[in-house]
Design a protein that fits this description.
The protein has two domains: 179 residues, no CATH class; 111 residues, no CATH class. The chain contains seven helices and seven strands; from the N terminus they run αααααααβββββββ.
Amino acid sequence: MTKTKPTKSTAKDVFSYLLMIITLIMSVVSFISLLFMYIEYQFPFVPDSIYDMRTGIQEGIRAMISILVVAWPVYLVLAWFIMKDLKKHKEKANLWVRKWLLHFALFASALAIIIDLITLINYFLDGDLTVRFALKVVTVLLVAAALFGYYLWELRRDVKLATKVPLVSAIIGSVVIIGFITANFFIIGTPAQQRDVRMDDERVEHLQDLQGMIVTYWEENNELPASLDGLGEEVYGISTPVDPETGAAYRYLPGEEYTFQLCATFESKSETGDDYYFPSHSFRIKGYQNWSHGIGEECFDLEIDPEVYDEVIIKDSEAPVFID
């Protein structure tokens, strides 16, 4: 009885399998990350500000979708190419690179399931299991279980037998991925809407900068500036902020003694709630300023507090010390 020589792996086989497993990892990680961001958007962590959360999630979603749109189709093409090659050369089912990478996929998915379950039990016993965290655990568990089941089948199957499992799996995976990518338009908004939000966030930052410039001018001159023309150059040596899209100057309305208004035209409605308030004491502005806005022109009433920071209480001193 003669022994069959083991099939040798060619450079094409090695690099095809390596690229396939790399694009699979990229697709899985970006898909899970995308779902995590959707969960965080729907169930925000209380200490997070709405502004920071929204900005970070939008940037992350764009990155994850970009990876998915490229990596997943490449993975499918490579998987189809390898499957087609296996039909012609059934002896390649025993290639060492194929066995190693299939076992690696099983190992990684099994390890993810184990770590996921350990984390779930730990948080449950600690009484810190929230809806937000539970959904993330379920996400990892379902994705890892699906990968483990598919690659266990792939490792055990007889390549000589025709099967539609890879095709059905590819269709289901693609539909799910496309569905969650499309969900971005309903959860976060279309690219055009997200651009409007970014522009409006920049407008709010500009108004805050102008607020600081006006207060600095008041501190140096003991009066409000008559206009915003050249204010940035005079106070900080920088350009005065203007609308990031139109280049138009922001509207400034000085009032009596300490009061003034700053106005901007917005293209989207901002989030509302306490998380959109910003402390203004560092700018000598009274109280907390709410920068929530609707669509269209919005004016914000501001008032300088000349008493802020004038009173300094020194430790172990019975009487306050006043400074100018």
